[in-house]
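Before the break, one more example. Copy the sequence into your notebook; we will annotate it together after we see the structure.
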Amino acid sequence: MLPVPHFHITVTVPAELRAVLRAHQRDGYAVLMQATAGAIIELARDPRFVGGTVAVLAVLHTWDQQLNFHPHVHCLVSGGGVSEDGTTWHPARRRFLLPVKALARKVRGKVRTLLRQRRPDLVVPEAVWHTNWIAHVTAWGQGEQAVLDYLARYVFRIAITNARIVGLDDAGVTFEHCDRKTRRRRTCRLSGEEFMRRFLQHVLPRGFHKIRYFGLWHPAHCQHTALVRQMLQLQAPPSAGPLPELAVPSPDPIQAEAAAAPPIEPRICPHCHQGRLIFIRTLARGQAMGP
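Here is what the structure looks like once it is written out:
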């Protein structure tokens, strides 16, 4: 997790493509997630927007509030990226990360290219490539808590929870859902067979990873992520509070090292009052060694 603002991006495929994805789930879902993350990373590298490689966590969902088949990808994206040489962090603007229309067009183009490469035998309706795809970009919050809030809400969610089921009998199932237009809670009643049909169509293929990491969060870039985290800590503004008092070392080296607790970082240098002090350990007088 990076101590920076984050953005929530959602990309939804058009209705004309849903039947193809449902018939070829393993390849179709993988292409959708790869294309979405690739488009985000490519646009973010443009100097007009971020100018660096961002971190992307992508989560696949295939349902809507009434359990209909509605594949879309949720992405948590870091509000900034690292330069190509890995030495500079480029923060994103406060409320803007990427242009939405350009993102939707780029995802559509990448899905088309990847599907042709991966499954050239698939027949996709031509209207899919001429329809405007839907994308949303929302500023999500600051730091680790924003990441945890996102994970709790989206990562391990299933199509429906027990709390939404308000009625169950031999004739059918009644559950609550939120109407997208009015934003009001409504109920939907289905027969047992139709409820199970809708629910089971969201069971993913065996072994499919619905959570994937790209950019700085890709496992291959874990070293870059550690350097970025250190870079952000050094760039953090110093604390405005009073400087903590310096502890007088004890004559006993063992007691001095045990009593010295590492201060909360970052900390202002007590001598120049400008540089940053990173605590490593306290050297007692008996342990000090010099040339």
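Residues 160-201 form one domain. The first strand starts at residue 5 and ends at 12. Try to locate both features in your own notes.
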